[in-house]
Design brief:
The complex is a heterodimer of chains A (about 270) and B (about 160). With about 270 residues, chain A is mainly alpha-helical. In chain A, about 85% of the residues lie in helices and about 0% in strands. Chain A has one domain. Chain A contains nine helices and no strands. In chain A, helix 2 (about 45-55) packs across helix 6 (about 145-185). Chain B has about 160 residues and is α/β, with parallel strands linked by helices. Chain B is built from three helices and eight strands. Chain B has helices spanning about 5-30, 30-35, 140-155, and strands at about 40-45, 55-60, 65-75, 80-85, 100-105, 110-115, 130, 130-135. In chain B, strands 7-1-4-3-2-6-5-8 form an eight-stranded mixed sheet, with no helix packed on it. Chain B starts with a helix and ends with a helix. The chains are: A mainly alpha (about 270), B alpha/beta (about 160). Chains A and B meet through helix 2, helix 6, helix 7 and helix 8 of A and helix 1 and helix 2 of B.
Chain lengths: ~270, ~160
């Protein structure tokens, strides 16, 4: 009887520990974000720091974004055509491709790829800096590692993701055009005119941009925080990198639903 | 990597991203064409506007010259008041013109078509009202009328 009681209390205690740890980490992440944001004005005056990170986060991610955008657009066109042709509405192909890219796939797929390509690299880099005590060394030299190392990476991610998402959508529309007009013989005029009359700047394009900005903030925040909060061992860095990809992807997908519900306003 | 090549690459990246955004806005979203330049507002009363919406196009001879700005209800006369904005380039529309609510295609979206009147001296201007209007064709009413005609025909036999 006594053994059973201790088992029950153990289970409860473990549960409590998990909840407390999660809350503690969330709190640390929030405080960390506030600390980073307060360092933003300092970093903006040293623009070259951001430019260096923009190269690492943005330019090097460009290829994967362009290639996947192209193929996503092409597949959308192919799939959409096969359904639309049943209703004799293949002229709306351009509209369908553009709307799905600009509103949903552009921001979301870009954010997922960004988390895998750039976010994980950020976490690994910062985690390794911590494990090899480079961050502590900076502090010894009275250099604030947050403004010198973390804020430029965060800002670069926030700037890069909307630009990458715009490129993804634009290339996707062109890919859809290549397949739809070039291979499936949809009329080029109606492909573009249906798209232009029905895609609205405010409700469609601006909302897509807002989404990608939010995803940029969340993905970079998670990546930088996980690196900074990593256990300073090689195993700890590996786990942190893993967590960055999982948490970023999950929060992007969940936030996407919330943002869509808010902007469409039907719920 | 030296600083110049780095700056070049980042510059290229940012420029390409902004160009993609511009392409989405103007080529896909058609931001420029949706705007009415230097426009003037005109009102019209309709018995029934069907599926007309804010931002629906206003056309003259099939060419888009403006868009619907607001749709309200006149509480005293139980009529719909449609306010639409016309492009400032077309200021010579006769004041006795007719505003019709038309449908593009059989089941397409509805728009306002303007049929010019005969008045050569007075033109529509800011705040004017179009008196001659034709209502939207409501498909259900049309089917009802056809049904009445058909049953009348069968009754005579």
């Amino acid at each position: 009887m006594n053994a059973r009681l201790t088992l029950a209390t153990d289970v409860l205690r473990n549960l409590g520990a998990v909840v407390l740890n999660t809350l503690e980490r969330l709190g640390r992440a929030a405080l960390f974000l506030v600390e980073m944001l307060s360092g933003v004005p300092v970093v903006l005056r040293r623009f070259i720091l951001i430019a260096q990170q923009l190269y690492a986060v943005g330019v090097l991610t460009l290829l994967i974004i362009l290639v996947s955008g192209m193929f996503v657009g092409m597949v959308l066109s192919l799939q959409g055509y096969n359904t639309l042709v049943k209703f004799g509405a293949e002229e709306s192909l351009g509209l369908m491709v553009a709307l799905s890219l600009v509103r949903e796939l552009g921001p979301v797929v870009t954010a997922l790829l960004f988390a895998g390509r750039a976010g994980s690299a950020l976490t690994a880099e910062i985690g390794l800096m911590k494990a090899t005590e480079q961050l502590a060394g900076m502090e010894m030299m009275a250099v604030n590692p947050i403004t010198r190392v973390l804020v430029p990476r965060f800002l670069a991610g926030v700037v890069a993701l909307p630009l990458l998402a715009a490129l993804f959508s634009a290339v996707g529309v062109l890919g859809g055009h290549v397949v739809g007009v070039g291979m499936l013989d949809v009329d080029a005029g109606s492909f573009w005119s249906q798209m232009q009359t029905n895609v609205d700047f405010q409700t469609d394009i601006l909302n897509g941009v807002i989404k990608s900005v939010v995803f940029g903030i969340v993905c970079s925040w998670i990546a930088v925080f996980e690196g900074y909060d990593a256990v300073p061992t090689s195993e700890g860095v590996a786990r942190a990198t893993n967590r960055t990809v999982v948490y970023s992807s999950l929060s992007v997908l969940a936030l996407d639903f919330i943002l869509t519900a808010l902007t469409l306003g039907d719920i | 990597m030296n600083r110049k090549t780095l700056e070049l690459w980042v510059g290229l990246f940012v420029a390409a991203g902004l160009m993609a955004l511009a392409m989405l806005s103007f080529k896909v979203g058609n931001l420029a064409a949706g705007d009415v330049l230097d426009g003037y507002e005109v009102k019209a009363h309709f018995e029934n506007i069907g599926g007309l919406k804010v931002k629906s196009p206003v056309t003259l001879a099939g060419v888009r010259i403006g868009r619907v700005k607001a749709i309200t209800v006149d509480k005293q006369r139980y009529k719909a008041v449609v306010t639409f904005e016309l492009d400032g380039r077309y200021r010579n529309i006769p004041s006795d013109s007719t505003a019709m609510i038309l449908t593009s295609g059989l089941l397409g979206e509805q728009y306002i078509g303007i049929v010019p009147g005969a008045d050569e001296d007075k033109f529509l201007k800011e705040g004017d009202k179009v008196f001659k209007t034709t209502n939207a064709v409501v498909l259900e009413n049309l089917i009802g009328q056809v049904m009445v005609k058909l049953t009348e025909g069968s009754g005579k036999k």
